[in-house]
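Exercise 7.
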Amino acid sequence: MTETTGAEQRIRGLFAEIEQVMADLVAEYTRQYGNLRSVVPAVVREARPDRHEFSLPLLVHGAETGDPAPAVPVAAIHALWWRAANVIDDVSDGAVTGVAKEMGAGATMMAAFNWAYVVPPHALQRLPVGDELRRALAFEFFQACTAATDGQLADLFSDPGDLTREQVMQTYRNKSSAPYVMASSMAARAAGADDVRTGRWRRFGLNLGLLGQFRNDQEDLDSGRFEDLANRTPTYHLVALVNSTGSADRERVVSLLGRARADEEAREELVERLLAPGLVRSYLQVVDRIRIEANRMLDDLNGEPSFVEALRRRVDEAATPCGLLADAAARLDGPSAGSVVP
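Solution. The predicted structure, written as tokens, is:
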């Protein structure tokens, strides 16, 4: 058994406990309120989970102390907020299912916002920790909430034809990285990390979140549905395409975007342009710079090796191109073929 596998097994052994803590928090929250009690537990169970919602707080705490178990309450608080955020995101995209779909967009948004901003702070108040640590945990939680909201609004209000690459990256830092920053910084604080180490964990979470968003963008392309193109979502890859072409090609790309929601051929041409070798090469270089910085943060933190290696594996997995982009990368000439490059 490798050290990484041992760390993975230790955190997975805690997932059921996290689920139970979440269920207990929701049950207490809804106990006196019949309308909430009739819908919120089901929506929480059916909400789209994130692949790191449990593991990231546990791994960070394990990296700091060698023991992931004390981070179970932080992981539960974090996962409840993240599932609410995913519900709100799905409502905005018209992608809800199950009980949330039956409730309707307005009721679902109301319930999700309420549990996101009521349950976690209430749970923080009940943690058996000192006031200073409780304030620090609350600070990390609310900072991440605010950043995520700002990023989501930027995503909704922006058009890919009007943005620069750096503007998209800033939106990603808020919208996409905020949950990772929340998980990493709260777990670090709970483990007793000082301000300097917590700042490094924030930076690590920011970079892992960026890689996660880049991976999500790739998975949308690979799905064949091309929902980001149909919705004119300002992904980094798309904005890079708009900004990397001459005036005639730019007009063509903007025209294709205008037709993308209803025109399958327009979406297919945009995908073909997104997979052009020059654009793919520069895209992979951006991803790899983020990967390098995330791994540098882990080197600087120098935590418990088995948990650090588990985190490093997540970084490298998120940075590895998938699907159509992986195929395009494999066709590149030179050292970047099939992989990201420094």
